[in-house]
Amino acid sequence: MTTQTLSAPLVYQGQFGEFTINQSDRQSVIIYRTGLMVAALSFAIASALVLLNPNPAVFIALTPLYACFSLGLGVSLATIHIYMAPLHRLLQAFWAIGSITSIILAFSSSTPLAVTVYNQPLTLFGVGCTFAALTGIYFKEAFCFNRLETKVLTPLVPLLLLGHLVGILPTPVEQFLLGIWAILFLVFALRKVVQAIPPDIGDKSVFTYLHAQRAAKV
């Protein structure tokens, strides 16, 4: 007769006490990374189509690709581990504003969504909120893991969007920045696949402490 013994979960020492990582924690990280991969792939494909073969059919295809990008990003924002709950909610609110604006523009405009946003830069005040949320993820990853690609992406995204908004960037520069963005976003998502899971979960004792602090104020 054989007996199977389950190994005890690892106990980590956090800032405010010990904690363990369970299967639910691991699944949330996997979902977070899957959402990032969907977003990165959708963005990379859309960018390649625009840069290599811009034509009316491509502009129409960009709308479903953007929808996949936005959904992937939304899933990631729902499962990301961020210590500051107000910041987490702010990023989710940015995503919601950007998504709602995009849906309204997609159904109300006579041109494809990408063409509408490109030709009417003021729409970035709404649609751009989605990319502000994405930049928040880049900043978090750069701060927590010191990743080179996210250090570049954190200023690059607002530079490109604000540059287009105020009309100071020549088209070749915008195309170059878009290509760099797509490549580095894909590199970032691919590197997350092979990263160990526990660092993405963080110090759970901090989450417990902050939750207790909020509960005490209620």
General description of the model:
The chain is mostly helical and 218 residues long. The longest helix is centred in the N-terminal third of the chain and has 30 residues, at 23-52. It is built from nine helices and two strands; from the N terminus they run ββααααααααα. It has helices at 23-52, 56-79, 85-108, 113-119, 124-145, 148-166, 171-194, 198-201, 204-217; strands at residues 11-14, 17-20. β1 (11-14) and β2 (17-20) form a beta hairpin. Strands 1-2 form a two-stranded antiparallel ribbon. 77% of the residues lie in helices and 4% in strands.
- Helix content range: over 70%
Mean pLDDT: 90
Proportion of β residues?
Answer: under 5%
The radius of gyration over CA amounts to: 20 Å
Quick one: biggest sheet? 2 strands, antiparallel
Structural class: mainly alpha
Order of helices and strands: EEHHHHHHHHH
Major sheet: order of its strands? 1-2
Q: How many helices in DSSP terms?
A: 9
Using the alpha-carbon principal axes, give the shape: elongated
How far apart the termini lie comes to 55 Å
Number-wise, the strands total 2
Which consecutive residue ranges, at least 5 long each, have pLDDT under 50? 1-6
Multimerization state: single chain
